[in-house]
Write a structure and sequence with these properties.
Among the domains are: about 60 residues, no CATH class; about 40 residues, no CATH class. It is built from 1 helix and 9 strands. Helices cover about 5% and strands about 25% of the residues. It is mainly β and about 180 residues long. The strands form 2 sheets. Strands 1, 2, 3, 4, 5 and 6 form a 6-stranded mixed sheet that branches. Strands 7-8-9 form a 3-stranded antiparallel sheet, with no helix packed on it.
């Protein structure tokens, strides 16, 4: 009896890469060369071709390199040639695509911190609730002493004019101007 062992190679489904390889690395890496022509200015060359765009300022270097490496879509050798002859080199990889499970990056911009205005008045019962009301408009009382006010639910109040501080127990009312 003759036993024979056979070895099977694992095959990946079409188009997939093994989990240990984060991205496809080309046989020859693209190269970005940044040559200093002034203390704060660099000329960019990609794979030997000088970019026709204006030179890049050092303050914009990180953003420009991120855009270029993302556009190239693979790990890229980046070389900075300084005016004193020194050379700094590194290999940059493009940013990973966003995960569908990652939190959204386009969150609304947080508003400016509040600009607070203080209103004070006296004559309230200690500890009572004091209401703050924004005066939208004024109306006149009729001949019998009754007043009527209309409010448009769609109106957006403006923080101008006056406010009322109204004591819920004491009935103390104080009108203050918004400056």
């Amino acid at each position: 009896m003759n036993l024979r062992r056979t070895r099977r190679e694992r095959q990946n489904p079409q188009g997939s890469t093994p989990a240990s390889v984060p991205s496809q690395v080309p046989a020859v890496l693209p190269q970005i060369v940044l040559e200093a022509v002034a203390p704060d200015t660099l000329v960019v060359t990609i794979n030997g071709d000088t970019l026709s765009a204006t030179p890049i300022r050092r303050g914009k270097l990180a953003q420009a390199l991120t855009e270029l490496v993302t556009r190239l879509g693979s790990p890229t050798r980046v070389e900075v040639q300084e005016m004193d002859g020194s050379i700094h080199a590194d290999i940059l990889t493009p940013p990973a695509p966003a995960s569908p499970f990652a939190p959204p990056t386009n969150l609304p911009v947080t508003p400016n911190p509040p600009s607070l205005v203080q209103f004070t008045a006296e004559g309230f019962v200690p500890g009572e609730d004091v209401a703050l009301a924004l005066i939208l408009r004024h109306s006149s009382a009729g001949p019998d002493g009754t007043a009527r006010a209309l409010l448009d639910r769609e109106e957006k109040p403006l923080l101008t004019g006056e406010v009322i501080l109204l004591g819920r127990i004491s009935g103390t009312t104080s009108v203050r101007r918004i400056d």
